[in-house]
Design a protein that fits this description.
With about 350 residues, chain A is of the alpha/beta class. Helices cover about 30% and strands about 20% of the residues of chain A. In chain A, the strands form two sheets. The first copy, chain A, has a seven-stranded parallel sheet, sandwiched between helices. Chain A is globular, with a radius of gyration of 19 Å.
Chain lengths: ~350, ~350, ~350, ~350
């Protein structure tokens, strides 16, 4: 018998990626679909050729509760929190792909997102859904805040550094594909404005993912996101001065990373810098640490699919944990070449 | 009366970009073309639709001397140095777009390029062709070493920081278009291997541009290059902790940058992070410094065209200085939109 | 002394391409800029790094007449016709890049564009601005209707066939870059919807360019446009059965094409099928006819830049003719490699 | 119990796509991998992150026979035929993704491929693997010639027309992604040569797929292939004059197509022209016929993934038929959005 899962926000990029992964997941069945503006239209009108035999309804907690054991919320921030509250009240577990429950501090939320938190009473209960850090808590949770894409890529690269106290400040320069800008048209996702161009945006702590990254890493982070012309894919390059007396070279640090991520099936420690195509369409992160002994600096490079490990595939990973399914069940791990 | 200029290596990407810029330059005439394997073929066989009415000969100093006042060498490292020596001996000024004369230290060259320097006796005379740093020396030179693309983007971003002693170590994460990998086929320029992918390579000081960057900046630099799927374009994002007591905010630092680059016609200090398309096809660099006062960190973002300011357009800029032409003459400054 | 020219619609793709070409044109000076929604903002707000020292005003015939000898209208269809009328009345010559004056038949316009023609009394006077067909009339005109991109690519490929009565029906399959879809966001220009995809649209005479193509060629045309993921560039592939007894092989047909386009400086007859990059950024068309004698069929392939020969560069070509300037003056002919 | 299948040529694009599809196929197990130059290297050296726990050996019929019930040959033409012969002799069924057994006429092969056929005695036995035309014969075969990508896209579009005698000559203009040019570096797959460009090649019957298309359709075909900058994806646009007295409009023709493809699970007849992304990563073809009654012309547009229905997914479809598995088992049908 399968668990019944729903997807709210199926007309967006993370929504359709959830469909793709869940459709072949052996432990669950998609039983409900919802959307905002696209509600009422067949799924194939938004995504030609996709037909799950389900209507796309408005996002409504009662409808979700009638159809689902667990729901994924792929909704704008501010919108998902009340839906999450009502779903939980109706006994439905929630994986929220939006930003509403990622920051534990309501004041930090208000500053980053420009509005008071809609449901602050749930912040304490929500678990930050990075399995490589909070796996046990996720397994006991009712409400999981699925991490942002940049925080995921950066945390996978940096967690072993900060947990061992090797660094006290990080530079994280990340590159994202255009799907990260979402599907609402604007200067960041119009073809002729972004093709054949690359560039930074929101530097110096201005990006909303900055407090999220610092919350999980516990050290100050100089985070600069960049856009490049690919549909999906993300890299993080983390550099930092190593604490004096660290005694590490690349081989030793790589061994630490391998040990840290042993037993975490969605992380691969590599010998060479990863490219985003090596994880395209998958739930995987690839991570490669190197030590520059001459300069006393560490550089760690990670790659994820911003819609995979950076969003929907990680959400399914969290679902597996929440529902007590095998951790890696149904998670894509074969990159889409070429 | 025009100066006569030649291009050795016209079948490569920097060679044809030199053709494009020089063809409409009012102060010079292209009088000689040379290539390696493509010698003997008409230019239009390599670049359909391009015909300068000139044959493409083998690279030969005597032929260059007979036809040119100045020659651009767009040749592989190790190949250009002897040609430069012979051209200089014959009275032809040289702008070398390759790497042979960028590093002042022959030992550093041998380490970075894996072979002893072919003409070390010219290293002292060669001038590093970054006009924003060495303009006067370039104007007096016979031999200019045109900077690498990554060093150009990084130096424009970081020079004001290091000249003022504001920082003692830099992180420079750069993104390059695929043309930077040249035209010899391989895993870094095959369409299906690089499209829809981004990633770092040669981290931790392994890239040959690292010693070049450190030579010009005078502080240690943690430089990590990245490839992204665009034909041309480059960004540098430089982050560093500011010296305690610096007293700078973004407005003050921006004013310093504006003052530093006043009178340098190819640098534009901007209020917003630049994207590479904003300088596509031009000789320009755009640079945007920001101060994160909360974290005591500066981040400076620059954008160039790796074949423009990062190679051929900067080479023409150096030519203008060498020949006593108006500094900005014939340099493209209008970006190619859309 | 230069002619004074204005650009109405400078915030669009054809508008900024006009800026790029006219800025280095030796016979004219840009003296007026106008836009719709972007009026009042500096040009650099829309196109970073572009500053002509001119304000961007609302589109107003009186302002145009005060500043210009000739104006380019790069405005939506239906909007440009009244502006054109008022400019002509004030003595300003007009090159209209929109569709309002391309069809000679007001009823055909009404059917294709879904509204009665706003200024039908000017249709007889307007000259269709394909210099390879109407050069003399353009030179005597006050009002030129700049051709559509698909009609330009198709006509250059097919004119010699229909003028010689070699064919009585054509299939024209064309590929366009995304800039052809304009800058208003929608499913045809959102990055993630069009990247990594190709496809036809508006087949079987449904595209508005169909009557324009048939008007100029005089035979029925089965025209199918396709979109492919490039910013700019267009190809037309025209196939037709040759009239029995034609007696032509490829060499003979190529000679006819060469003769037909001799003296037309913006058309190059080639031996190999052209790719759109071979004319990128230029005012050129490349065209390659081949005869399949076994099947009695001709296939002619052409390539243009949809914003160059397909729009703005052809508009400047028409301007040269209108103003009595040398025909090829200021027209870019060097393709932008790589 | 699963069937045991092998892949010869796993370092190519169609080879790794076979891996992707077969790895999640419930009816078979991959038991052998082979390659040419890449033999001896781990699979992950060619395709980072891919590890099936199998060595990659040289292509050897004895090794194949020891490990496999069926083998896929993704090898250059001329190379696969002798391997196929030896595998068949050893009792292994063969799906050949190359061109060696597609043409039934050895003389036509010699003309198209420039060499005598290596194993002409097998031509009569080989079955052309287009399930929509030869399903029953495939199910009884030992050796299947998997169709070329262009012939697949064109045949799906045109079969109902020619089978009903509606047309006597076809124009087929096709667009292919770059992966169709294979992985050996050259001017057709170097990033900077093909990005931002589109164009035709090999017109007028010069492309090797022309005789294959005409063999399957039985009428003369004017076939012109085009390359566009996408990694994978293909469209065919087929236009033809309808036989006088046909009496068809779009609705009637669409009904015929729906009837023709009823029971063929990998073809979808659509109301709107398909884009290649709608079938990305799948075994599907989408096809849309329209009738232009005013001109008496039919235009049919199809889209496939050139590596999916155009190569590897169709090969697995053929495998299902050969092995008596459910026809659609394990075939991907969910397009990869975004």
């Amino acid at each position: 018998m399968s668990f019944r899962v729903g997807i709210a926000g199926v007309s967006g990029y993370t929504g359709i990626e959830l469909v793709r992964i869940l459709a072949s997941h052996p432990g669950v069945a998609i039983t409900w679909l919802g959307a905002g503006k696209a509600a009422g239209e067949p799924l194939g009108a938004t995504w030609p050729g996709v037909d799950l035999g389900l209507p796309v309804g408005p996002v409504d907690a009662a409808a979700i509760a009638a159809a689902c054991d667990l729901v994924f919320l792929a909704l704008p921030h501010g919108v998902s929190a009340p839906v999450a509250r009502d779903c939980l009240a109706a006994g439905v577990r929630v994986v929220d792909l939006g930003a509403d429950f990622r920051l534990k501090d309501a004041a930090a939320y208000a500053q980053a997102y420009g509005a008071p938190h809609p449901v602050p009473e749930l912040l304490a209960e929500a678990v930050y859904g990075l399995p490589e850090k909070h796996r046990d808590a996720i397994a006991r949770a009712r409400l999981v805040a699925n991490p942002g894409c940049y925080p995921t890529a950066t945390a996978i690269a940096a967690l072993p550094l900060v947990e061992d106290g090797l660094v006290d400040w990080l530079v994280a320069d990340c590159i994202s594909g255009i799907s990260g800008a979402g599907r609402s048209p604007g200067p960041r996702n119009l073809y002729c404005e972004v093709q054949e161009s690359a560039g930074a945006y929101s530097p110096a702590g201005a990006h909303r993912h900055t407090p999220e990254i610092e919350q999980e890493l516990g050290v100050p982070v100089t985070f600069t996101p960049h856009l490049a012309p690919l549909r999906r894919g993300m890299t993080a390059t983390v550099s930092a001065r190593l604490r004096p007396g660290h005694g590490l070279d690349t081989a030793a640090l790589r061994a630490r990373y391998a040990a840290r991520y042993a037993g975490h099936p969605m992380v691969r420690v590599t010998d060479t810098p990863p490219a985003s195509r090596e994880v395209r369409g998958t739930a995987l992160a690839r991570v490669c640490p190197v030590v520059d002994t001459a300069r006393g600096v560490v550089t760690v490079m990670s790659a994820i699919d911003n819609l995979g490990k950076g969003a929907s595939a990680q959400a399914v990973h969290n679902m597996n944990l929440l529902l007590g399914l095998p951790e890696a069940q149904g998670l894509p791990t074969l990159p889409e070449y070429p």
